Amino acid sequence: MSYVRRFDHVGITVADIDAVTAFFVALGLEVEGRTFVEGEFLETVCGIPGSRTEIVMLKAPDDGTRLELSRFVRPDFVPGSPAAMANELGLRNVSFEVADLRAAVEWAAGQGYGLVGGIGEYENTFRMAYVRGPEGIIVSLAERIG
Predict the structure, then answer these.
(1) 28: domain range?
(2) Per its UniProt record, what SUPFAM superfamilies does this chain match (predicted)?
(3) In angstroms, what CA-CA distances link 36 with 19, 29, 54, 57?
């Protein structure tokens, strides 16, 4: 028996929700909604009494899985490790298929976001690279080549 019906979204807590939203919108995602959440529901789910968050929900052009960005208004956020490498425990990366990997990497570099390593090729099927995006988020970009 499977308990999962579908993959709904990935959530990332950020400090500067406007800057991170702008990065993902420029990459090609669309803002689906933006709101504040507080009260019993949030306190129960996240286990932080008195919490309030601002949430931006982003969707890909294919209308598939969403990306939820949240910023804690209260309490203040706790800094993470913005230089985390791929072997550090936790969320490893957010991955997107792109039409032109080199163009996407050049765009990211122009925005001040560099490669974690280099551009690799997997079995003549995909070309892929990790970009260290805003707030240290590793954004995996992959281009189908085969």
Answers:
(1) 9-74
(2) Glyoxalase/Bleomycin resistance protein/Dihydroxybiphenyl dioxygenase
(3) 17, 20, 4, 11
